[in-house]
Amino acid sequence: MNSMVALRSVFVDGGCFSRFQDKPKMLKARKRHVRVFAVSSQKADKPIKVGILGASGYTGVELIRFIANHPYFGISLMTADRKAGQSIGSVFPHLITQDLPVLVAVKDADFSSVEAVFCCLPHGTTQEIIKGLPTNLKIVDLSADFRLRDINDYGEWYGQPHKASELQKEAVYGLTEIYRNKIQSARLVANPGCYPTTILLPLVPLLKASLTALQDILIVSNSGVSGAGRSAKEANLYTEVSEGIFSYGITRHRHVPEIEQELSDAANSKVTVSFTPTLMPMSRGMQSTINVQMAPGVSVEDLKQHLKGFYEKEEFVTVLPNNEAPHTKYVQGSNGCHINVFPDRIPGRAIIISVIDNLVKGASGQALQNLNLMMGIPENTGLSCMPLFP
Ligand SMILES: NC(=O)C1=CN([C@@H]2O[C@H](COP(=O)(O)OP(=O)(O)OC[C@H]3O[C@@H](n4cnc5c(N)ncnc54)[C@H](OP(=O)(O)O)[C@@H]3O)[C@@H](O)[C@H]2O)C=CC1
Ligand SMILES: CC(=O)N[C@@H](CCC(=O)OP(=O)(O)O)C(=O)O
Fold it and tell me: Which of 37, 70, 91, 161 has fewest C-beta within 10 Å?
């Protein structure tokens, strides 16, 4: 347990406990909340109504899983495209017993009672849809549409002009541990990409402290197949991805400008990276191996101690002890990110390894962490579940 976050949980009650009509129930929830870090799954009588746009996809269904145990959020709207009109149990048989709204098309969705939405739609589609949403809604967008500040970069890397430049100006980049203050008052949060999350969590603090060089940053990342979404094409069939690995987007992957934007902000100077994503034959999980040049006089232990100090009070980011290698299995199903730093054989260089679950800290978990902040409730609400192991 992390005492700083626990303290914040005690003192920052953005009105969430008043969601309980029944006072004894409210007091019980408050008491539990104060004494125990993990929040109860008992629902408030009047939960905050949230919508999930793209609930029939992988990130959408991951949000359903977390919100089921969230005391202050209730799902009142879920959309799909090809699967509009179906029940969630027919799209996801593991949810057959859940009492959830029928999937509707976005054009038929009623937003009148919804306070916030998670947008789990393909990039390109998302900006058009968000443009048409009521302006009082809080939005966490899991797509890439609002991550790049420069809309010309968006046009260059996503192959189409940006169609919602005004909204783009309003968006806050949702790397929670770094931008927590801005996220708290944001209306539209651009949730980071999964690859950028694994890379930025270790590198941003190091670059901010000038502990590593701005160039010669070599990154190889491995992703589980769910990273490509449920609508993925033939190339993601079991027959084609099992028992083999392959890299893609070599030399040019659309996450590069996002990574460089954030690293350059951290360093206050232009940073460039070499980035190679690779598809691994596993359902979920992501690892980034980041090879950096250390600043003159800086040691591997300095990098590690700096990261440890930076994340000491964070519940979801852990710098591992000793020489333990991060393992995707140890964060699977959880909102955790595990990091460790190792010496390279080449003097002056270090190898940083970082792992997350691409669907949780890389997408829906971080999105929920952000909406919690935006709604003024404790950031870890609904997210303190342990990893799934083995
Ligand atoms: N998967 C991951 O690990 C990560 C994904 N992301 C991003 O999150 C977003 C969602 O990803 P993911 O859940 O994996 O994707 P999926 O392909 O699994 O799901 C996409 C969802 O969007 C709906 N949809 C598709 N096209 C349209 C359209 N034209 N209009 C309205 N709805 C539409 C689909 O409906 P239907 O099923 O009916 O077709 C489905 O509900 C994407 O932008 C993705 O890049 C971000 C980080 C990680
Ligand atoms: C395995 C795989 O295909 N991964 C996706 C990235 C994951 C993702 O969804 O990223 P965004 O949030 O930026 O869309 C890709 O390489 O495009």
Answer: 161
